[in-house]
Amino acid sequence: MHEFSIAQNIIEIVKDAVTKHQAGKVKEVVLGIGTLSGIEITALDTALESLVPGTILEGSEIKKNIIRAMAKCRQCNTQFEPEAYYSCCTHCGAFGPEILSGTELKVLSVTTD
Amino acid sequence: MHHDHGHDHHHHSHNHPSQHIELKTDILTKNNLLAERNRGYFQAKNIKAINLVSSPGSGKTTILEKLIVLLKDKIKISVIEGDQQTSNDAKRIEATGVRAVQINTGNGCHLDAHMIQHALPALKPEDGSLLFIENVGNLVCPALFDLGEELRIVIASTTEGEDKPLKYPNMFHSSDICVLNKTDLLPYLDFDQEAFRINLKMIKPEIKMIEVSAKTGEGIDELGSMFIKTI
Chain A residue with minimal CA distance to B172? Predict the structure, then answer.
């Protein structure tokens, strides 16, 4: 599953940040995960469980901020929260809205002791 | 290192102050940067790179074989093949007379930009050529990984059912063209072509759809013309 690649990248990003800022023990990592990002949270948790031990993230709390998707209809400009890419406009029913947010996959912050 | 004076190791009085580091770093940054690097390489050499994605068995390699036979006298072509194991597909492509490099991902489920970057020196694609990248058969994971391609083509087949675009929205949404293969089998199936088209347009109204049969050659000319006329 690609969540293993994602987990590896998260660990590397945190390591780089800690080195760059000469920071101490990692206490908390906050991730931003959009509902349309293509990431399955339980699979990510499994991947992190298996990859984090032995790294500087061990013992830290990894928080996941879920970023709800927001879309704008290309026909009538109504903004709405799409459940999926195939969701239609809640006002006029048109498909293929512009996705304004919800595809994010980010390490938002790292807090150290 | 800062342990130049003898102090006992109480970690809360260690030399590191507590920090809150704001990052907002894209988790796929590394792949995306390499993908852009690949993209720059392709643009500099006027190479049209095409990423073919689909589930296993929908006919990517057979379509590629037919396209190569159609186009190879008009334009130089080279291929990067991706599979977990075997070089079966690279061998099939080489049998058509064009160069192919096989990437084996082992247990990996998708190609990424780094793998493509690594394959290019061995392949040495020519200036002004077509580069087809046949991804690992998988409708889920490859969707997230930009390889630096100019076009992404998702291949579905009539034996897979009309609802695949809805079931695998990320893959279809990230693609520029959808090829529906195995039209020759329609008489033996309950496949609803119109329902497939509708489902596809629900995910991405602007996607181009082409129906082909790699077996009979139907639609292959039309598919091939999409690559030649824009070079």
Answer: A85
CA geometry: angle B51, B54, B60, nearest 5 deg: 75
A12/B19 Cβ within 8 A:
no
**With an 8 Å Cβ cutoff, is A105 touching chain B?**
yes
Contact B23 A107 (CB under 8 A): yes
Q: Are B155 and B59 in contact (CB under 8 A)?
A: yes
pLDDT for position B231: 39
CA angle B71, B77, B81 (to 5 degrees): 120
Q: Which residue of A has its CA nearest to B143?
A: A38
Tell me whether B151 touches chain A (CB under 8 Å): no
**What confidence tens digit (pLDDT) does each residue in B81-91 have?**
999 999 999 99
By the CB < 8 Å criterion, does A6 face chain B?
A: yes
A91 at B interface, C-beta within 8 A? no
Predicted complex ipTM: 0.90
Q: List pLDDT tens digits, range B99-148.
A: 999 999 988 899 999 999 999 999 999 999 999 999 999 999 999 999 99
The Cα B164–Cα A27 span in angstroms is 42
pLDDT recorded at residue B107: 83
Q: What is the 3-state secondary structure (H, E, C) of chain A?
A: CCHHHHHHHHHHHHHHHHHHCCCCCEEEEEEEEECCCCCCHHHHHHHHHHHCCCCCCCCCEEEEEEECCEEECCCCCCEECCCCCCCCCCCCCCCCCEEEECCCEEEEEEEEC
Distance separating alpha carbons of residues B48 and B87, to the nearest angstrom: 24
Closest Cβ–Cβ partner in A6, A18, A86 for B166:
A86
pTM: 0.89
List strands edge to edge, sheet with A105-112: A61-67, A26-34, A105-112, B19-26
Asked if B66 and B223 touch (Cβ cutoff 8 Å), the reply is no
Q: How far apart are the first and last CA of chain A?
A: 33
φ/ψ of residue B12, rounded to 5: -75, -10
